[in-house]
Amino acid sequence: MDGNVLRKKLNKVVLAYSGGLDTSVIVPWLRENYGCEVVCFTADVGQGVQELEGLEQKAKASGACQLVVKDLQEEFVRDFIFPCLRAGAIYERKYLLGTSMARPVIAKAMVDVAKEVGADAVAHGCTGKGNDQVRFELTFFALNPELTVVVPWREWEITGREDAIEYAMKHNVPVPVTKKSIYSRDRNLWHLSHEGDILEDPANEPKEDMYMMTVDPKEAPDEPEYVKIGIVKGLPVSVNGKELSPASLLAMLNEIGGKHGIGRVDMVENRLVGMKSRGVYETPGGTILFSAAQELESLTLDRETIQTKDSLALKYAELVYAGRWFDPLRESIDAFMKEVTKSTTGSVTLKLYKGSVTVTSRESPNSLYRQDISSFESGSIYNQADAAGFIRLYGLPMRVRAMLEKGL
């Protein structure tokens, strides 16, 4: 129970702060229960300016001593999104890991801010049912194990929105007047996720008015649009010949892809904590980039390498989903991915049309595709007569088994 918990005295806590009801209530709760100063921290990972407006005023009105805002967009794309893209990391066949990649970059920044302001603790507003609590806390453990981690949802008696509003009024905390969405959403530069309400029943089709980053494919332009992605060593560098920073490149592709209804995914996934959850994701730019990167690899990587890379990509995605970004295993697999994609340089042209992405062209100076070998015309490198001996040897186990079954 809240009143009977013996709590360690803290000096200063850095709180992951959004300005919503939950984090607004956490500020006075931390001060009341831990007797500490509260530094609110907000990361800009591309969630949009409307979510960042008026935050300092809100934080101080809640009792925080200061608000620190950091623009992490370039770091997020360069150091978190692009490595996952290079690795081909997709969780459970569909999920492009938007929220999973954002949490460690935010938590890393919180550890840095804690050092800057002399805090001895960090706090977050994640509930005990989701994946995000794990992602935040594993990052804290990995980067500064000396920090105390405070998680109000595991300690307090507040059980829902009405309790939180009552607590806020009692402590003179201005209750955010923003209209409460019927969906639980998480937005960043890579994606927008939707959970809750009618989506909780996997049998229900999502309503069209739920989507915010992508138009209904039926309403998308009637003419296809072609987009050329330039890639160097497995990482995107340009769109239609124009070189862009990682965040700018992704923002441009989000706009282009969203206009054509690209990147909608509806899935039931296995959460880390054991339950299944149903979510709908919009990842327009990411979907385009994954198509381009995979297609270029078809030219630059041989069969054994692609198979090995794909098998490790599953593990890589699992580690990222589980919050193990700073795990030595993730870092080691990433080193393999960096090495194996050194030759993946070139360009891929994609056709975007009413929700679909189709590859129309792929080119690479390091292409392993040789027209003189692949041609149906006879060439000097590939002698078709060699195939007979190869097939006899390759099929020997099958012949031996058939001979045994026939008593030969």
Automatic annotation (TrEMBL):
SUPFAM superfamilies: Adenine nucleotide alpha hydrolases-like (SSF52402), Argininosuccinate synthetase, C-terminal domain (SSF69864). It is an enzyme of class 6 (ligase). CDD domains: ASS. One of its GO terms (molecular function) is ATP binding. The keyword Protein transport does not apply. It comes from the Eukaryota. This is argininosuccinate synthase. It comes from Perilla frutescens var. hirtella (Perilla citriodora).
